[in-house]
Here is the input.
Amino acid sequence: MQKFIGTGVALVTPFKEDLSVDFTALIQLVNYNIENGTDYLVINGTTGESGTITKEEKQEIIDVVIQTNNKRLPLVLGVGGNNTALVLEELKSRDFSGLDGILSVAPYYSKPTQEGFYQHFKAIANATDLPVILYNVPGRTAKNMDPVTTLRLANDFKNIVGVKEAGNNMQQYYALLKDKPADFLVISGDDDLALGVVLAGGSGVISVIGQAFPKQFSTMINHGLQGNNKEGYVVHYKMMEIVAAIFEENNPAGIKSVLQELGICRNEVRLPLVKASQALSSKVSQMVANFQSSNF
Here is the structure.
């Protein structure tokens, strides 16, 4: 699964002022990332506001990204939920041509047992031939998928190829890295921990900030993959403040504020999310200006 090593980015869904999908901005965002070092793209994840994207919009977004990408980078599609039957129905009915894998979030709200997590992902693995990347994000789902469950799935199903771990817990990363199968990918879902995870043996990141600064962030991750910790941390320390800033209020309001400063898309989000506050927007504006003036 070399195609999922390095820097993946969880694309935002750009919106116009009327909150319809801004496909022109989406095309610009995709090209910007392809041209500046991103290794693969993730469509319709949390950062893409998947919870408020309609079925019809999702298909249009997929079509536009596939066409724009034109086979230049691997593409991963978010396919998940807390109704296993509906997830299986999407896997059976959707045309996955042009897509290289799926990212499937741990069931949220329902708070299943560890056996429930296992049976949910077992059903998903058996319903598709595509590579499956598990997505554990307990801060959003209200329940942690323990490393023992993730590793059980990794050992039992060949097409479960990795996990995007986003618990912001280095001990959990270490538990996964210590006992994982040799070819199983442990992917950081925490931008602030990504370099440390890669240096510890992780395979890369699925990043939020990376889509705004793909050259810098992918350079940092590549240093980590090569074991160049000093060089990697030079970049890490320069990006610490803006990484923290974009998560101060909510995601993706923070990253959309950055992308607006870069002229890539508007900062519009759909309710129940709201735009970044004026205070955060001003902070982000100054940070972006500093980046652009420092050859960083």
